[in-house]
Amino acid sequence: MNIVNTRELAVNVLSEFLVKWIKANTEEGAKPFDSFEVMICGPTRQKDVERWIFNINYLYYCVGNRLYSKGYLGKTPDDGRLSLGDLRSAFLAVSDSNPMNLRAKSDEAILKEMYKDWPPFVSGSRNKVGGYKKGLESLRDSGNSSWLDRPDVSLEIRGIGADLEEQANLFFTLKTEVEKGDMTHIECCKSLLPLWCVTDANPLYSLLIWNDEDAIAELASRLAQLFEKSGYPSANGGYSHSTYVGAVRRSQRLYLDSLGASEDGCLDGLPLSRIHQTLERNFFSLEKPCSCREVPAWLYGKAQLIWNVVACSIFGPKEVIIGSESLRTGTCSRGLGGKCARDGELSGQILLRRQFASGASELVDTLRLGDIDGNAVWHVFGRSFDRDATIPSSLGLDDEELMNVFVGTEELDSDGCVVEGHGDSRFHLALFVEVSPDGEKSLICRDLGSKNGSYVQRGKGSDRQVFLLKGRRFSGRERWARDHGFDSDAVNEAERVRLRRGDLICLCDSCFEIL
Questions:
Q1: Which of left, alpha, beta for 501 (phi over 0: left; psi -120 to 50: alpha)?
Q2: Phi-psi region for residue 396, left (φ > 0), alpha (ψ -120 to 50) or beta?
Q3: In this predicted model, what pLDDT tens digit does every residue of 300-328 receive, in sequence order?
Q4: Any residues with CB less than 8 A from the CB of 78 and at least 6 apart, and which?
Q5: Rounded to 5°, angle at Cα 309 from 404 and 353
Q6: Pairing of strands 349-355, 82-83
Q7: How far is it, in rounded angstroms, from Cα 236 to Cα 416?
Q8: Alpha carbon 212 to chain centroid distance?
Q9: Does residue 502 register a pLDDT over 90?
Q10: Tag placement on the chain: N or C end, fewer CB within 10 Å?
Q11: How high is the mean pLDDT of the chain?
């Protein structure tokens, strides 16, 4: 007997929300997405959105988008165009009008639904390359022979067939890697999602809701409430889902901020295998920004946003991509030029690098002091972003601005357990750029009233100095030095520290270096 899912499903919350949003934003028969489906006069229903999410009818959209972009598709067959109705009849892989009844399926069955067509054209998929040939035969039987035999149309039809064969080879390779254990199903889905975003694989990816900040904020909040109500473990291993909401909003901000970038790559019109090769060659990843000019600047943010909303409605919030990850290489696209002061004083460009307890290090961000016109907050460090926590007044930031500068210090292992950063406060420490009246610029480190305080370590051996930024649990300089293994004569209490190159900034359970 199959185990029936009795709790409310996130994927149903998502599909219901999208249907209502589409209805509310449809004007004069035009639906708010950029796809040949705008020609359909009827309303969008929940079953339609569910099919988008699970990538059902991929073949239909693949052929339809190609014919539509070439001007070969219309509402009616007038002027030698194929009608939308004939397209649907010929190429829909699943044409029934019934819902998928996801609430009647177990969690395992829902995942199997996802994996059938992520990717398509493989064993078990509802979309088959052979379905294209059968679709062409049905078009001939329905009286479209004269249209199919036109030289220009015939050439386009052959081109679509060759493209589908090439896609099938790519998808077969990815599926084989999963079956061999070289990648997981989820890793495969992460490789596919950017491809779906570039090609607008179905109307889900061309929906204008991804540009609607109010709608996405409301949707993320609803999903987070459901995750919490249903007892899902959160992205940081606990059961508070504020991290999820922050990740969704941040990924949308990354997407919107990158629209219209002057150095925007373009992958439009390329075969899917070429797009995949380009992304692979440039090490594109949903976890790390890509600064290559071959890749559209918007792709990282949009793919991450859709993953955090759509994929997490299937896989759960534990698979959310934490927004602060993007800070680790995000501004490195500015280049590594600039002057480096040799005496330790800061000028030109500053690098911020994280030092892990394992001995590994990772670049967090770069900053050109010459780009700063006035006082500013560079970064705020904390355990994980909490949109409901009170923002320290000393920051002078609102919720949206804080998300753009926040660095989450929690690190999770493969089981979702916190292995580093668990002792840090929500808002633990901040780095400020300060400009004096005569134009001198400084990087200032200040504790934000954390429980356990923080300190800056400068120099080594007998020259080592420690600048202690006291926390709420401060027990006195002598005891603190003894507990942390420092000579008390080397420890200096400070309210703020003007940083130099080589300084180590130590939170309770995290360490960052200024270079």
A1: beta
A2: left
A3: 999 999 999 999 999 999 898 874 333 33
A4: none
A5: 35
A6: unpaired
A7: 7
A8: 16
A9: no
A10: N
A11: 84
